[in-house]
Write a structure and sequence with these properties.
Blueprint (H helix, E strand, L loop, with lengths): L1 H14 L4 E11 L2 E10 L7 E9 L9 E6 L2 H20 L5 E4 L3 E5 L6 E6 L5 E6 H11 L13
Antiparallel strand pairs: 1-2, 2-3, 3-4, 5-6, 6-7, 7-8
Length: 159
């Protein structure tokens, strides 16, 4: 019986090696993007719990196949930078001026085009390019929801 108990403990502990449990803290669909904030718990305790946010979307370039794209934020600095860029986009969109402008960072590009006033193109740069389009109303909502996230915190900010 003692050998069976030791064997069961060894089997259970070996099963958890390399396993990660992802626990969503917040998730919401905003226009064509899905905003998610979650934590990753390493079941073998090989790393501390990690927190990150990301936006996911279907690549607009393809209509007949699934080509999901993700832009991830693994630190508060990268998330804050994205929010700042979105606020700049929002200010420009509110002018209704016909301009072509882009905000390019290492893992994303935000673009406004003079031929499509009122819509923002969100582009991935890493791991295969792709884009989606959201309007001013959804840019505003995305800014509001992203501003509630503090990377590393268990709960959203209260406003």
């Amino acid at each position: 019986m003692k050998k069976l108990l030791v064997l069961a403990v060894l089997l259970i502990s070996s099963l958890s090696i390399g396993q990660t449990k992802r626990v969503p803290i917040f998730s919401e669909k905003i226009g064509t993007v899905e905003l998610t904030y979650q934590k990753a718990i390493y079941l073998d305790n090989s790393s501390p719990t990690k927190y990150y946010a990301f936006i996911a979307f279907q690549n607009e370039e393809y209509k007949t196949i699934v080509d999901s794209k993700i832009i991830g934020f693994f630190s508060q600095e990268t998330l804050t930078e994205f929010i700042t860029d979105l606020k700049s986009v929002q200010e420009q969109m509110l002018t209704k001026e016909k301009v072509t402008i882009d905000w390019t960072k290492s893992n994303y590009k935000l673009q406004l085009y003079e031929f499509n006033v009122g819509n923002l193109y969100i582009n991935t740069i890493q791991r295969g390019k792709g884009h989606t389009i959201i309007n001013l109303k959804n840019v505003t909502k995305l800014i509001e929801k992203l501003s509630l996230i503090e990377i590393g915190k268990e709960e959203l900010k209260q406003i």
